[in-house]
Amino acid sequence: MLRVYSYKGCDSCRKALKWLRDRDVEFENLAIRETPPNKRELKAVFERYEGNLKKLFNISGQDYRSLGLKDKLPEMSEEKAIDLLNSNGNLIKRPFVIGGKIAEVGFKPDDWESLGF
Question: What would the pLDDT profile of 13-25 be if each residue is shown by its tens digit?
């Protein structure tokens, strides 16, 4: 089943959830702050973005800025980044969607159409 990690205060998340409901897509919605994606899911999305760690991070978030990740991320190992994301759902770009052959972050309706929903 499709798993959608979202945050209730996120406008993109609300739009994505509505988009899925409008298309009768079955999914499980999880609170990303309280239940961050597991390491296996994070690695799957990391691979989908061909190793671009920055794509997984919520670079506009306060936690990202307060931890100084803009400067640290370029030198960070995949393992350390995955551990960090797994321990702090605020750092993850959202919505974070995974299931079957789908591994995606963010919501762009045109991109989601091409995923085959």
Answer: 999 999 999 999 9
Whichever domain contains 108, its CATH number is 3.40.30.10
- Interval 101-115: pLDDT, tens: 899 999 999 989 988
**Distances from the Cα of 75 to the Cαs of 6, 69, 80, 81, 116, in angstroms?**
28, 10, 10, 10, 35
Q: Are 85 and 57 in contact (CB under 8 A)?
A: yes
Distance in angstroms (rounded) separating the CA atoms of residues 32 and 1? 17
Q: At what angle do helices 39-48 and 78-87 cross, to 10 degrees?
A: 130
* Domain assignment of residue 21, given as a range: 2-114
Distances (CA, A) of 31 to 3, 50, 66, 77: 11, 26, 22, 26
Q: How many CB atoms lie within 10 A of CB 108?
A: 11
Domain count, the chain: 1
